[in-house]
């Protein structure tokens, strides 16, 4: 499918080999294509058909070479590529790599968790947290509803987590906080 965007006319034109359709819009968000880094695209022996690192989505260990583990946007796993996903992957790898080096079975699994704050107004955010199975919320409230508390978390807490904890490798995702806020009853 090919697309043509005419900004001055607020019109987007999609064409396929069968037909052409024109859509009018007031606002449009166009995401760039997602692709693996060039070094992976040029390494078919370690990548999948889409040129992403071929890993087991649960253990994050390479499907063919046991001494290779993957993390982040280069993974050929179905999770959404976000910083929140990376931190949960770090938790999995922080336990699986030492076990691999000790020649023990890999027990920690990554559940394809990801999160994305959706800013819907100046003071309200939908804090979307999810796995492949559906919502996977940390707060004990329906996070699909725009909330001021989600705005406060996005505005003040998440930047702190990113810059002071995440970048330094000290944040391994919200699973512990989720267990506390849900009184130990968690899907993890």
Automatic annotation (TrEMBL):
<protein>
    <submittedName>
        <fullName>Uncharacterized protein</fullName>
    </submittedName>
</protein>
<dbReference type="InterPro" id="IPR036188">
    <property type="entry name" value="FAD/NAD-bd_sf"/>
</dbReference>
<dbReference type="InterPro" id="IPR015904">
    <property type="entry name" value="Sulphide_quinone_reductase"/>
</dbReference>
<dbReference type="GO" id="GO:0071949">
    <property type="term" value="F:FAD binding"/>
</dbReference>
<dbReference type="GO" id="GO:0070221">
    <property type="term" value="P:sulfide oxidation, using sulfide:quinone oxidoreductase"/>
</dbReference>
<dbReference type="GO" id="GO:0005739">
    <property type="term" value="C:mitochondrion"/>
</dbReference>
<dbReference type="GO" id="GO:0070224">
    <property type="term" value="F:sulfide:quinone oxidoreductase activity"/>
</dbReference>
């Amino acid at each position: 499918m090919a697309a043509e965007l005419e900004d001055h006319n607020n019109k987007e034109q999609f064409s396929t080999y069968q037909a052409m359709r024109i859509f009018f819009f007031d606002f449009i968000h166009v995401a760039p294509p997602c692709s693996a880094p060039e070094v992976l695209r040029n390494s078919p022996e370690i990548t999948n058909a889409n040129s992403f690192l071929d890993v087991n989505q649960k253990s994050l260990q390479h499907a063919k070479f046991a001494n290779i583990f993957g993390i982040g946007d280069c993974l050929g796993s179905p999770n959404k590529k976000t910083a929140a996903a990376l931190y949960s992957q770090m938790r999995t790898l922080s336990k699986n790599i030492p076990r691999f080096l000790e020649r023990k079975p890999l027990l920690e699994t990554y559940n394809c968790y990801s999160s994305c704050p959706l800013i819907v107004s100046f003071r309200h955010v939908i804090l979307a947290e999810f796995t492949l199975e559906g919502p996977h919320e940390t707060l004990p409230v329906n996070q699909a509803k725009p909330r001021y508390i989600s705005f406060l978390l996005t505005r003040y807490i998440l930047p702190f987590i990113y810059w002071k904890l995440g970048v330094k490798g000290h944040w391994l995702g919200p699973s512990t906080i989720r267990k506390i806020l849900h009184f130990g009853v968690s899907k993890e």
